[in-house]
Amino acid sequence: MTSGGQLAPPRSEPAGEMTPNSILLFSHSPFYRLNDTIFFDTQAQNGLRLYTENFDVVRIMAPLVEDRQDGLPSGASALKPFLEAHPTVEPVMLPRRGTIKFLTQDLRRGRKIIREKIAESQYLVFGFSGYIGDWGTVSCRTAARMGRSYAVFKDLVGPRSERIYQRKMQRSAPRRLLDRLKNILMEYSDRQVVRGSALALLHGRDTLDYYSAFASNPQLVHNIHISKADHISEAALTKRLEKRDPNMLNLSYAGRVEEVKGPDDWVRAIEGALHHGTRLSATWYGTGVLLEAQRKQVADRGLQNNVTFAGFVDHKQMLSRIRASDIFLFTHLTEESPRCLIEALSMGLPLVGYDSAYPRDLVGNSQAGLFVARGDTEALSRALKELSADPERLKAMALDARRVAEPLNDVDVFRHRSDIIKEAL
Predict the structure, then answer these.
(1) What is the pLDDT of residue 235?
(2) In what order do the strands lie in the sheet with 351-354?
(3) What is the pLDDT of residue 107?
(4) Which residues fall within 8 angstroms of residue 30, CB to CB, at 6 or more apart?
C-alpha cells in the first residue's frame, strides 16, 4: 500500500507478519507506571473496547510515564483488568519525550518499535501534535517511508490553539519570539503529516474546516464515550422541566481547569449575570492546574454562595449531576472539539458559550445553543439573564438539545469511524 502524497520516498524495511483486520493506534494519552502497576485513561480504555468490536487485534502505542511525583491524574485506572477482559488489545509503550536520553537513545529505540508494529498491522491511525519528537508525527513519517497508507486523527486546530494559548499567557518578548518559531515549525509539520495521509479523521467542524484545506480525504467524525443508555430519556427530561424552579438558573460545566478552557471568563460571565440580577447556581466539574487558583478567585470575589469548582468527579457521577442542570456554560479559548459539549446535549442541556464552528455544527438549525463572540463575557452575562427570564425558551432549547444528540453514542460513532478506516486504507 502507498500513502497519498508521501512524506519521504519508501525504503525497504524488514517484513513482519501482518495480522489481518488489525489496527495500530497512537494516542497522546500516556501509560503510567506506579508501584509496578500500569495505568491508562479510563475513557481511552473504553475507546479500545469499542475498537475491538470492529477489529480482531487492536494495538495501542502511547508514551510511558514512570513514577510521577504527584501521583496519577484523575481518570486513570489500572490496565491489567481491562487487558484480561479484552485479550485482543496489545499495549505498546514508547519512551517519554523531552529528555536528553530521548534524543540520544530513546528516539532510535522508539522508531524501531514503531516500524515493527506498523509491519504487523493492517490499518494505521495516528494522533499527532507537530511537536519535535512527537511519536504520532514520527509514526506518520515512518509509515510513509515504509510505503504504507495511514490515517491521522485530530480533535483541535493545533497551531491556532497554541497561538491563542500563548497570547493568554502574556510571556516575555524572547519567549514570544520562540513561541512564534515553534508555531511555524508545528504548522509546517502538521500540514506535511496531513498531506501525506490517506485519511484524515477530524473530530468537530472547527478541525474539519482547518485541515480540509490540505487533506486528501478529510472526514468528519466524533469522539464520544457515552452510550445510548446514558442519554436522558424523554420522560426524564419532561419531569426535570416540570419540576424546574423558574426563578433559579442552574449552570454546569465539565472539563479541565486550565487556561485553554477559559475559567476566568466563565467566572466573569457568571459574576456579570449576578450583577444583572440573575439568580443562579454554577458548578464546574473537573480538576487541573488552575483548580485552587479558581477556588481562591471565587472566594475573593465573594461568589462562593453561587459558584463551585467541585474538582474531580467520576464520569458517571458527573453525567448524573449535570443532568439536573438547566444550561451547559462553556468559555473555550481555543479551536477544539471537547466531548463535553456532546455529553451536555445528550443530558438535555442547551449549550451557551463562545461561538465557533464546532458547537454551531452540533446544534445545527435547532434552538439547542446560544453563542456569543469569544471573549465577550458581558454578552454571555446578558444571554444568561435573558434565558433566566424566558423559561419557555429554555424549555424549547432543552428539548432540542436532547433531540440533536440522540444519534450520538459511542457504539455507533466508533463503528462509523471503523467503517471509514477500512474503506480508505
Answers:
(1) 97
(2) 307-311, 280-285, 249-254, 327-330, 351-354, 369-372
(3) 84
(4) 62, 63, 64, 65, 96
Nearest-angstrom CA–CA distance, 75 and 40: 8
- The residues, ordered by sequence, that sit 6+ positions from 344 with a Cβ below 8 Å of its Cβ are 252, 254, 322, 328, 351, 401
Q: Which parts of the chain have pLDDT scores under 50?
A: 1-15
pLDDT tens, residue by residue, 169-209:
566 677 667 767 777 777 888 899 999 999 999 999 999 99
CA dist., res. 273 & res. 210, Å (int):
34
Cell of residue 343, nine digits: 455529553
Whose CA is closest to 186, among 115, 258, 119, 136? 136
Q: Where are the beta strands (DSSP E) in 181-271?
A: 199-203, 218-221, 249-254
The CA distance from 129 to 305, in Å, is 40
Task: Look at the pTM and tell me if it is higher than 0.90.
Answer: no
Number of H helices, E strands in the chain: 17, 16
Angle between helices 173-195 and 135-145 (to 10 degrees): 30
Q: Buried b / exposed e across 228-257, counting CB within 10 Å, b at 16+?
A: eebbbeeeebbebbeebeeeebbbbbbbbb
User: 367 with 400: CB under 8 angstroms?
Assistant: yes
Give pLDDT, residue 6.
36
Output DSSP code: residue 8. S
Q: What is the DSSP string of 386-419?
A: HHHT-HHHHHHHHHHHHHHHTT--HHHHHHHHHH
- Residue pLDDT, tens place only, 232-241: 999 999 999 9
**Which residue, 387, 347, 350, is CA-closest to 369?**
350
pLDDT reported for residue 96 = 81
Using CB atoms within 10 A of its CB, is residue 352 exposed (0-12), middle (13-18) or buried (19+)?
A: buried
pLDDT at 124: 98
Beta bridge pairs of residue 121 = 19
Residue 364 · residue 404 · CB < 8 Å = yes
Residue 103: predicted pLDDT: 60
